[in-house]
Specification:
Distance between the termini: 206 Å
Structural class: alpha+beta
Order of helices and strands: HHEEEEEEEEEEEEEEH
Shape: rod-shaped
Strand order of the largest sheet: 3-2-5-6
Oligomer: single chain
Strand content: 25-35%
Largest sheet: 4 strands, antiparallel
Length: about 270
Amino acid sequence: MAAPRTTRASDTAPRRMVAALLCALTPTAPLGPMAWPLAQSVGALGVGCIAGVASLLPAAAEARPKAKRGEGPGRLTIASLTRGATVFLDDQEVGTVPLAEPLELSPGVAHVVRLQKRGFGTLVETVKMSPGEEREIEADLVPSGGVLKIGCNVRRANILLNGKPIGVTPFDGDVEAGKHQLQVAAAGKLTDTRAIEVVAGEEISLDVQLVDVPAPVVKPDDSLLGRWWFWAAVGTAVVSGVTLGVLSQREISVDPPASNHSLTLP
């Protein structure tokens, strides 16, 4: 005894289609003796084609993978125009925008999705998905400031932005968008001062070359005061005047010499 055949929904639909087409091809009005053989040939040809197509439909339906509802992890697609933004899932880095494929999330659990990029505000989203759910979130970051990178031929040169120190070279930091005055200074070097404009979400890279402070230049004096012989004569005159002054103030006394001779008269 043959086992009973189980009929599936994918089998019954094509067979119902074939039955409907056969009914449409069956003549309902009486045909003449000449038309009946032609109608039989056309009908047989149509039935053969329909039967061939119908035999392929169940196989094609079985070849397509069927999505199972309510089973498996959730799939989260992140749509973002902020290229290069880093994506974190529960504080674990999972890639950068654009992601190659959706994120698979455990169903029934609250997950924290975070996108961040330097010069942009951070986006944090809490997502809880059902089994087999597919969802898409838009995650475009808003520019908040710019990135400033400064290289210099002097290490640890002081960096001032609008007169306030912000660090030393080499420098890599976030600054507010807008126009600023930048100064790079180091001991024994001329200060490099320039105006910069920081655009939100963009990066500025500078290479600052500080130069030595030049030595003072002494220009020759061609006037009378710059002549050496003038100052030599002045020095001689001063010494002579001092000597005469000292001598004029001293009293000079000359005592007669003592006599050691005696006179004897006869």
